[in-house]
Amino acid sequence: MKFVVIDDDPTGSQTVHDCLLLLKWDYSTLVKGFESKSNLFFILANTRSLPENDAKSTIEEICKNLKTVIAAQAYEEEIIFISRGDSTLRGHNFLEPSTLNCCLGPFDATFHIPAFIEGKRLTINGAHFIDRTPINKTIFARDKIFGYETSNVKNLLFQQSKSQINFEDIKNLFLSDLEMLNDAENNIVFKTLKNLKNNKHVIVDVENYSQLNKFSLVIKKLIKQKKYLFRTAASFISSISEKKSFSQSEIFFSNLRLRNKEKFLLPGLIIVGSYVELSTIQLNNLLEISNCHPVEVDVFEFFKINSSDNNHKQRNLFKNKFLKEIRSSFEKGKTPVLFTSRKFMSLDSSELFNFYNLLACFIAELVADLKYEIGYLISKGGITTNFILSKGLNANYVYLEGQILTGISVVTYNLKNDKKLPIVTHPGNIGTNDSLVNIWKVFENKNIF
After folding, report:
1. What percent of the chain has pLDDT over 90?
2. Does the pTM of the predicted model rise above 0.70?
3. 237 occurs within a structural domain
4. SS3 sequence of 6-61
5. How many domains does the chain have?
């Protein structure tokens, strides 16, 4: 059984380890995923950074290539498709699985499982919570692009479908149902799942891994008879694949840091692109360390440059200014922390998509110019990280080493000099106030535990 996860940003692998994350979906790269030793691999579609039409086109292209590879290679093992989305409900939660159903289906059912247990994001009685706070009462509900006003997942899905599905056709699998569920053919809940057809949408309650694992066991039995699709956060991927989160030792990660030809440790670089409140708190705590040098990208200045006529020369000057400041930090033995100014642009959603992508591309270009000069990279924010991996480093794939902290992964990228650059893929909405500080201390070999 092979699990193919189509991820809307690079952070959905935060509960598993030892697998490939594909940044491209051409034939040869997809074959590499299918033939990898792990029972799962991720395709980093980065669709959360795209408006609806572009996201749909990207999913369609991925599906077309998947079908070509599967047909040509004649794989005999069962293939399970998972659409990984954000546990804070930001993203194309209806569009992406709907497109997958059109291209790879028809499926008997699509299960929506947004619970991320490690981050205290739980679904109870059909409503979604963060640490027992209804999701619509959190800052994530005020997202400039993907904001919402309800914590009820069924209501949100119906709204995002723009009435393409009937409200009555969206079902719930409640905690009480999970308590009764087992894999006996005469079990009433088992039979309900078995009888699902015509791509019924089902919201699944999850409060802990024992419930999720019970559900996964039943799904594995039914999958031999049924064709199911899943739109989930990260916890379900760990449960269904049995590829658990794996926290390596502090020494393991510090030893990943690259050295130069003289065997001296190369400096680190930290990028913070995420705008969520937690990211700002983590950033401010990091900048209290005297050995971390702040390098701020003013978003209004960047916008002004990109909006001007003949901006190529201005953009290059802007870029070179940052490269000079970052390299100066290296020479002084400090860790540069490149971050976008904590300001919001007053743009409509399509303009925001475009601007954030331009900004992420700019940051990716900086990393591309510095990739042989650094010993490790810490990247905060899913969209930013994806652009760094796919555009800046032009990676076909990266290898998932494991989690340095709960929900925060480390991948390695093969440089052309045969060295492997460690990259921390730190989600914007995950971690404690001191996560960035603690990760920096691990790579700088400061004893914190």
Report:
1. 84
2. yes
3. yes
4. EECCCCCCCCCCCCEEECCCCHHHHHHHHCCCCCEEEEECCHHHCCHHHHHHHHHH
5. 2
